[in-house]
Amino acid sequence: MGKSISKPLQTPNTNAVFLLKFYFFLKKLFLKYKAVIRFIILFLGTYLFLTFLYSLYLKYSHIGTYYPDFFTNLAAKQSNEVIQAFGYNGAVKPDQTEPFMGLYINDIFLARIVEGCNAISIMILFVAFIVSFAEGIKKTALYILGGVALIYAVNILRIALLTIALYHYPEYTEFLHQIVFPAIIYGMVFLLWLFWVRSLNLKPKKNHE
């Protein structure tokens, strides 16, 4: 008996079928979580872009006349002005060995104002969140400007009060610096986020037939 030669079965292109199914899966996933994906893209995009701009600022800030950089220098000087407004003999001096401004009361060194104390990073985080829930250019821009101004003002007051607290209660340095006063600034940012979300029109639009 002769050997029969079997022909391979004709099957559809499995790769094309897989890609097609994967495409429809992604499409369905995108439509289902469109709001979440939009938030992630806007938040990360804004945060990374502003962080990049700030890193450029820090890179070239050392060539300026303000030590260690303009915003840190300004925050230290304005904090000292608030301390003096409370009736204390405050002073601010640049450190000669490390990049920070020192805050003093009655010639007692109490606090270091480094780059991270100027609240710029917190402002970037705040702006990225607001942009990710943007609702109208004018409304969003006004809220961002007002929020950034409030964060800056509260941060200056926070530094001044922390310095005064350290002057009177040096034994609570770690508790005040690590817990109490960081909670003030981050708690306020959280409230600003909450107020913004509550002000948005998040009700789904109804189709009128």
Which descriptors apply to this entry?
mainly alpha, three-stranded antiparallel beta sheet
Number of helices: 6
Spans of at least 5 consecutive residues with low confidence: 204-209
Q: How many domain modules?
A: 1
Question: How large, in whole angstroms, is the Cα Rg?
Answer: 28 Å
Q: Strand-and-helix sequence, N→C?
A: HHHEEEHHH
Structural class: mainly alpha
Structural notes for this entry:
The chain is mainly alpha-helical. The protein has one domain. The chain is built from six helices and three strands. A three-stranded antiparallel beta sheet has the order 1-2-3, covered by helices on one side. The chain is elongated, with a radius of gyration of 28 Å.
Task: Tell me the layout of helices and strands.
Elements: H1 14-32, H2 34-61, H3 70-85, E1 90-94, E2 101-105, E3 108-113, H4 120-132, H5 137-168, H6 173-199
Antiparallel strand pairs: 1-2, 2-3
Helix pairs in contact: 2-4, 3-5, 4-5, 4-6, 5-6
Question: What's a quick, concise take on this entry?
Answer:
This protein has six helices and three strands; from the N terminus they run αααβββααα.
